[in-house]
Write a structure and sequence with these properties.
Layout lengths: L12 H26 L5 H12 L2 E2 H8 L3 H13 L3 E6 L2 E9 L1 H13 L1 H8 L3 H16 L2
Antiparallel strand pairs: 1-3, 2-3
Length: 147
């Protein structure tokens, strides 16, 4: 019997259907995320950066790594968010040579409002039992850890 680790590279119909469904879920989530960002006059990149900073202040280098983009792009995004009062730069207490980007109180409010408006995934998930949500979570973790 084949296991996920030694499954032949040729996909069966069920695997292809699952891949297609995952793609559809990702596309719908991305579309809703972009709409939520636009509702706050943010680009998708600005919204993702603000969301990260609402969790913790981060140096520009780490932001670029997490967003998988060039540090110069992050600088521009932070500049625009800072001009709107959603983000501020501050010295890193551990190394004063490093500047951290941090969400302001207003930035955290906007990030929270965006998260709360993302109903696409949350509402269908609420219809699943806890056991089903745990199984889905564990399956997704397994998929992410296999790469």
């Amino acid at each position: 019997m084949a296991t996920p680790r030694n499954t032949p590279s040729r996909a069966d119909a069920l695997t292809l259907e699952v891949v297609e469904l995952i793609g559809s879920v990702v596309a719908r989530y991305h579309e809703e995320y972009e709409d939520a960002a636009a509702g706050h006059a943010l680009t998708g990149a600005q919204a993702r950066l603000l969301s990260l900073l609402s969790l913790e202040p981060l140096p520009m280098r780490k932001l670029a790594q997490r967003l998988k983009c060039e540090p110069s792009n992050v600088t521009g995004i932070v500049d625009r968010l800072e001009a709107r009062g959603l983000v501020e730069r501050r010295p890193d207490p551990a190394d004063r040579r490093v500047k951290l980007a941090a969400a302001t109180a207003e930035g955290r409010r906007v990030a929270r409002s965006m998260r709360e408006s993302l109903r696409f995934a949350r509402e269908p998930l609420a219809g699943l039992s806890e056991e089903e949500r745990v199984a889905l979570r564990d399956t997704l973790r397994t998929m992410l850890n296999a790469t």
